[in-house]
Design a protein that fits this description.
Blueprint (H helix, E strand, L loop, with lengths): L5 H13 L13 H5 L13 H4 L12 E5 L2 E8 L3 H5 L8 H14 L2 E16 L2 E15 L1 H9 L2 E2 L2 E2 L2 E2 L4 E20 L3 E21 L4 E3 L4 E5 L2 E4 L8 E14 L2 E12 L2 E2 L4 E4 L2 E4 L4 E3 L12 H8 L6 E11 L2 E10 L11 E12 L2 E10 L2 E12 L2 E11 L4 E12 L3
Antiparallel strand pairs: 1-3, 2-3, 2-25, 3-4, 4-8, 5-6, 7-10, 8-9, 9-12, 9-13, 10-11, 11-17, 12-16, 13-14, 13-15, 14-19, 17-18, 19-20, 20-21, 21-22, 22-23, 23-24, 24-25
Length: about 425
């Protein structure tokens, strides 16, 4: 096993990492500028950006008469604690035993090897006065390997010429593809001598297309005698029908205040949310296999009624809902060319459909060395780690192009998030 090529290892680990297909909300941000702020953008968002961040911002000064964007794309890919950079360093080379041993020690210290991958595409987002609209689709998922599962991938079932025993329990994979449309409305009114107060709401409707949710149920490989017992049940949607395998409505509400250069903004996403997967369109696949040297058997992979699925797994699938999220931000326009924004985000409850960090506290800024080139940067503390980002734009007349990239290290692993907007109207 010491002469195994890392190409095979890379293929195995990456395949596991992308099988589920990270930072995702029910209605993803359509703002490349927001990612450049490291997603610290609650108070700075204006125009079409505000639909996903805080609809109340549409009632504040600084909004254009109208704005729109088509097809901004946001992608995330990550793996850790053995990350994609580790694997890339050994592309096309032999991976020595000591390197693989170091990787395994990192997985054992972390408790598991995790990966996330996904993409959000906003077909269109627009704003006309205090009214906004956004239509987006997103595919996201995570995968986790126990230390024994990672050891099996890295070394096979033998070490030092001896067969090894493995317990693969709690390895898991889950992924979902959904689409969401939202309509928002804000109302602003005078507050004090120079202030403006605004309240707003966004009504969302989500359709679920694909779900795959599986968790190992105590699979094991014993050493003497060699017995392989695999049990990895999966609950998934019927791929013959992608349009509507689940649905539900949700409501975001927000409030914002602006006085001069200062903006204070807060929102609660998913004040209520009725989204759920349609149990009538879910199926259960046992995915079992057994081998003891004398005989072998393969359990059926055919779809079976949900009533046959493990109770715990069914409960986890039924809990795949959108949990409430609190957003709070303060922005200050230091000068016509510099704006800063500090944010706090907190998701209420564990589990659910969201794949991003549960908590975030950070700040971001935009500086224009010349009026038509915005430079952006931001940093944040997130659950289990940190996030750093940067971005750049180019304004041409009333349109702009933008690109941003973020690097996040959290309890899932190390992820790279990219976002590109080829063309949009102001604001960016």
């Amino acid at each position: 096993m010491s002469t195994r090529k890392s190409g095979a290892l890379l293929g195995a680990l990456v395949a596991l990492g992308v099988a589920a297909s990270p930072a995702a909300a029910q209605l993803p941000s359509a703002s490349t500028a927001g990612l450049g702020f490291a997603d610290n953008y609650t108070a700075a968002a204006r125009g079409y950006n505000a639909v996903a961040w805080n609809p109340a911002n549409l009632g504040l000064p600084g909004n254009p008469g109208a704005s729109l964007v088509f097809f901004p794309v946001r992608a995330v890919a990550g793996l850790g604690p053995v990350n994609l950079s580790d694997l890339k360093d050994w592309g096309g080379k032999l991976v020595p035993t000591d390197v693989r041993s170091t990787w395994l020690q990192r997985v054992q210290s972390s408790g598991q090897e995790q990966g996330d991958v996904g993409a959000d595409v906003t077909f269109a987002a627009l704003q006309v006065g205090p009214v906004g609209f956004q239509l987006s689709t997103g595919i996201h998922g995570t995968v986790a390997l126990t230390p024994d599962a990672a050891k099996l991938v890295l070394f096979g079932n033998e070490q030092g010429g001896q067969a090894q025993a493995f317990n693969l329990r709690d390895s898991r994979v889950n992924g979902a593809w959904t689409s969401t449309g939202a309509v928002s409305l804000a109302h602003g009114f005078a507050a004090g001598k120079d202030g403006r107060l605004s309240v707003g709401a966004a009504l969302k409707y989500t359709i679920g297309h694909v779900l795959a949710y599986g968790q190992d149920q105590n699979s094991s490989i014993s050493a003497s005698p060699i017995v392989v017992n695999l049990n990895f049940p999966v609950i998934s949607t019927d791929t013959a029908s992608l349009f509507n395998n689940g649905a539900g409505a949700g409501l975001d509400v927000g409030m914002a205040y602006q006085a001069g250069k200062l903006t204070v903004s807060g929102a609660m996403q998913n004040v209520f949310n009725s989204f759920k997967w349609d149990q009538a369109k879910l199926s259960y696949r046992p995915a079992t296999a057994f081998f003891n040297g004398d005989s072998s058997s393969t359990g059926t992979f055919d779809a079976q009624p949900m009533s046959q699925a493990p109770t715990a797994l069914v409960g986890q699938v039924l809990d795949l809902k959108y949990k409430p999220v609190i957003l709070a931000g303060v922005a200050y326009r230091v000068s016509p060319r510099l704006i800063v924004d500090g944010d706090f985000h907190q998701r209420l409850g564990d589990g659910g459909m969201q794949f991003g960090p549960k908590m975030q506290l950070g700040a971001g800024a935009e500086f224009r060395p010349v009026s038509f080139i915005p430079l952006r940067a931001g940093a944040a503390v997130v659950t289990g780690g940190s996030q750093f980002a940067g971005g750049v734009g180019l304004d041409v007349g009333t349109f702009s192009m933008n690109a941003s990239i973020a690097r996040r290290s959290d309890d899932i692993g190390t992820s790279t998030i990219t976002m590109v907007t080829l063309i949009s109207s102001f604001p960016r």
